[in-house]
Specification:
It contains five helices and seven strands, in the order βαβββαβαβαβα. The chain is an alpha/beta fold. It has a single domain, classed as P-loop containing nucleotide triphosphate hydrolases (Rossmann fold), CATH 3.40.50. A hairpin with a 2-residue loop joins strand 3 and strand 4.
Length: 185
């Protein structure tokens, strides 16, 4: 980053196995600092992976990455852990954030309710909901997802493929625009 450049913190939140680590990793220009831990049989009753085939590791504290938007702006990306037993970390991860992305998986939409509720209750961090397009497919209309989440019109809802850097960059631009439009001058 060049001298005098600005930086902003963006939090990526959502349910277990929704793609937060993938999103951060797909655009980070530095090696992602992650806290992935292998899941064991002991965690089976707690971390239900039946609807997430191939999930063998989970974030236990955070993911951290950085993307330089232009020479004058770098975004620091903080991915939250998705399981409720780690939610106590969210307040610390969100402190000082410009904005947040709540990543949603329409196959398990209820898993993003706690993240949406968290940011609505805080009220001090603008956020948007990004529907992660697993398998590159859109399975529900944006209106149907908005209605299912009971999401007010003031909260943007975008489509995103967490594996595709171009899609993630578009989502980051959308959340920055929303934050700038929302925050007091």
């Amino acid at each position: 980053m060049h001298p005098g450049a600005l930086s902003a913190k963006i939090v990526v939140a959502g349910g277990f196995g929704v793609g937060k680590t993938t999103l951060v990793g797909s655009v980070s220009e530095i090696p992602v600092v992650g806290t992935e831990a292998m899941m064991t049989e002991i965690s089976g009753p707690v971390d239900d992976t039946r609807k997430i085939p191939g999930k063998h590791a989970t974030t236990v504290a955070m993911d951290f990455g950085r993307i330089t938007i232009d020479p004058g702006l770098a975004l620091y990306l903080f991915g939250t852990p998705g399981q409720d037993r780690f939610w106590f970390l969210w307040d610390d991860l969100v402190r000082g954030a410009l904005a947040a992305i709540v990543l949603a998986d329409t196959r398990r939409l209820a898993d993003c309710f706690p993240a949406v509720n968290y940011f609505e209750a805080r009220g001090d961090v603008p956020f948007l909901v990004a529907v992660n397009l697993f398998d590159g497919m859109r399975t529900h209309t944006a209106d149907a997802v908005r209605e299912a989440l009971d999401l007010p019109a003031s909260i943007p809802l975008v489509l995103c493929d967490a594996r595709q850097p171009k899609s993630v960059r578009a989502t980051l631009r959308a959340v920055i625009k929303h934050a700038l439009d929302t925050l007091p001058a």
